[in-house]
Specification:
Layout lengths: L16 H6 L38 H11 L25
Length: 96
């Protein structure tokens, strides 16, 4: 087990943000910005939360989808807004 200064746990001790956040009561140093979430650079729980306004640590789903497409040898096309079908802001075609 990796311990930080003073023998305290660090983010390296956890695989997910959820695991680290569960340890906040006995390891408050894991929640640096005091928002109730620890080690926010770790993978989350796999759940998606929608927010009315963007917040610290929020991700962009279009960026995520684009990166995952590229990582899986797919192709991402960027179009001008006037070239988008039916005036949409995003469109996709899934083939397998």
């Amino acid at each position: 087990m990796i311990r930080g200064r003073g023998g305290r746990l660090t983010c390296a001790n956890f695989s997910t943000e959820a695991e680290a956040s569960a340890a906040i009561p006995s390891n408050p140093q894991l929640d640096r910005d005091r928002d109730g979430r620890a080690c926010e650079t770790l993978p989350g729980t796999g759940e998606t939360e929608l927010h009315e306004e963007a917040g610290l640590g929020d991700g962009d789903l279009l960026d995520f989808a684009s990166v995952q497409t590229l990582l899986n040898r797919g192709t991402v096309y960027v179009l001008n807004s006037e070239d988008m079908p039916d005036g949409l802001v995003a469109a996709s075609v899934f083939r397998y």
